[in-house]
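Intended use. Records like the one below are meant for learning the mapping from a protein sequence to its folded structure. Do not use them to infer anything beyond what is encoded.
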Amino acid sequence: MNRLHTLSVIPTLPEKLERLRDVAMDLHWTWNPDATELFERLDPELWDKVEHNPLCLLAGIGQDRLEEAAADEGFLDHLETVTKDFKEYRHEKEAWYQQQYGDKKDLLVAYFSAEFGLHECLPIYSGGLGVLAGDHLKAASDLGVPLIGVGLLYQRGYFRQYLNADGWQQEHYPSNDLFCLTVELIKNEQGEPIATKVLIGTREVEVHFWKVQIGRVTLYLLDTNVYSNHPEDRQITETLYGGDTEMRIKQEIVLGIGGVRMLKMLGLNATVFHMNEGHSAFLALERIRQLMAEQNQTFAEAREAIRASTVFTTHTPVPAGIDKFGQDQIFKYFKEFWPSIGLDKESFLALGGVKKGKADSPFNMANLAMETSAYVNGVSKLHGEVSRKMWADRWPLVSSEEVPIYHVTNGVHARSWVAPEMSHLFDRYIGKRWQEDPRDHDLWKRIERIPEEELWRTRERMRERLVIFARERLRKQLQRRGEPLSEIERASQVLDMKTLTIGFARRFATYKRGNLLIQDPARLAKILSDPERPVQILIAGKAHPKDDPGKGVIREIIHYARQDEVRDRIMFLEDYDMNVARHLVQGCDIWLNNPRPPMEASGTSGMKAAVNGVLNCSTFDGWWVEGFDPGVGWKIGNGEVYEDIEVQDKIESELLYDLLEKEIVPLFYSSSRGRIPMEWTAMIKRMLMNHCPVFITTRMVSEYTREAYIPTHERSAQLMENSGERARALSAWKERVKSLWQDVQIVEVRGDGQQQLNIGDNVRIEALVKLGSLDPSEVQVTAWVGDLGGEREITDAHSVPLSHKSTDENGNLVYEGEIECSSAGQFGYAVRILPYHRDLDSPLELGLVTWE
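Structure written out for the chain above:
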């Protein structure tokens, strides 16, 4: 087509309303109820129609209505309040980070993610990973953590879902109207877009930058939809997770390599780089390239400095969920790159875990991320354990317990997800400080002050709002399908305001078992249609466009829901997004989560429900391993892993039916005085007190700051001093230790000979070792002590250091230490030697271990 010239026409806001545009352009409004009410007040019907997008609202509203609002003193007072709150928030000088780490003024975290779920008005997310990333940025803003986000600006984002007459998922990809997105193109002083270029195959691709303001945090988005680019290259940032692995590797090159170049061009000197999943792992290679060029370092030296400042969070509990690329693809896109970092093809492929001489061995992005990160973590306690076992072959000489992968349990941004009704309740009985520092456990003990009747009536109003929303959503679904008028009119009759409501909403991957509840259709129908104690279910979620088994699960649910005996009791809400999610997690009574253990890394939807007083019923997986207590919810099984998944599904579906029939439903309908189910409301109170200060992103981000950001920031600064002097020294030391480790050996281990010991006794250990040319200061000699199981393997172990005491007549170094017998049982120990250097991330980093 011919070159297209664009004109941007913006609405004419009366002078008194000009501040509305400023409020709209900062997504802080998304967690400020006063601000959302302000926009809705302009035109409630249009506000819903434009999917709560303030820029679309201002563009579509009539000029007469704007003039009317400008003359409305009440509206202007409301605007003044919102603007004042906005300014106070942006300019607050003593947030949590400033109070705790005021001396760390040079810290800047660059948080990379392939998707960010901030609000439905900015559709550049698909599901939990993106929403978690969005909540991470919001919490960093609340805490004052110096952090910026880096992602991609998708022209179409993720697909919109609708179902055909047979219940089969269909996808369509509407283009995002940049005019109506809260994004701003970054330009230079001459008004021209600032851009960088990235080599994709044989072509250089121009990349533009956009920014999104989120309170105190800025999100930067990269965009290849530039006229000067080849048509194929313009499509790189078109669709989130669209296309094949060819498109995926192009997107990840733009995100990782382009993202690092963007930060450099904008003068944003990040000191810590946090990769949210492995999609952005190529960033480490570009950082190494830049450092090698700037400071004349070798690859090994530059990698030490870069590794020290990199954090990697994995969200994947199964190998199949990790991005992998064929060796031919790596050659196609990186054959010009690896010479720039001083590597040959084989060495470069090894960074991605490619096995030497195996043409079918893929390049693994998680492996690349781990190779170049100082701190690696899973997203729940259980996921940390699963990840250590999953990656144990990277550290073959130690037990999986000691693999250096940690965990930071996910959380949710409470202020974004708590319903207005519940928020007002918290304000009244806890005080507004719950919004400023929800991590305060003592604060949440005030939940006890809430009268049971008021808590129950609040929850009822939230359920009523959900039912109204679901009916309207169903009516629109039926209209779109062209259903008869009689069916459309029935939409106003489905569901009931007083009925126990179960919510189930998530990505429809088969392991999440969206159809577990309908394993026994007749038994479920009996539960749903009980005339005295009825139950209703609301379901939502998308299957990946290429996941036919997942689509089949949705179709199975739709067909079941059409049966006469349940059609008013079960509903599938199409096109699951953050708006649908908010209504569901706020209005349900039970949040159901039944993945097949241990395949749920964390799962945050249940946390969103919990902060709204919704009780959880879940398999013992993900975050629920930490969150479950008999007094706050229910668990389906004990996290057992079955060889036959059909047997597992049958057993656990029956457990779920039993819980509903014998515990959940009777408890919900066990009303006493004033028709209030007192034990149910007591469970809600216990859950709010236990979960609200823990499973939130302010706790999560503060933990990342303490455990990952500050330590990596400080260690990286030390390695980079004097043009990377310590990084060079560390690199040289590693090469030296690797070459000399073959001479390290344990000659003999001596105990004190006692076989029967009492609690409180100490066992003295002496080890004779040879270190060859290494100095004792370059190693750690330890006893690995733990329970001795039936298979004679040490479990639940810990390390006890042994100290160098002397040298014997044979030249052996003598190390001594003591093991304390603190409990009864059978224990074992084994002595080992590890390398030690003050600048190592972990003694296991080199993979060098010598056992007795």
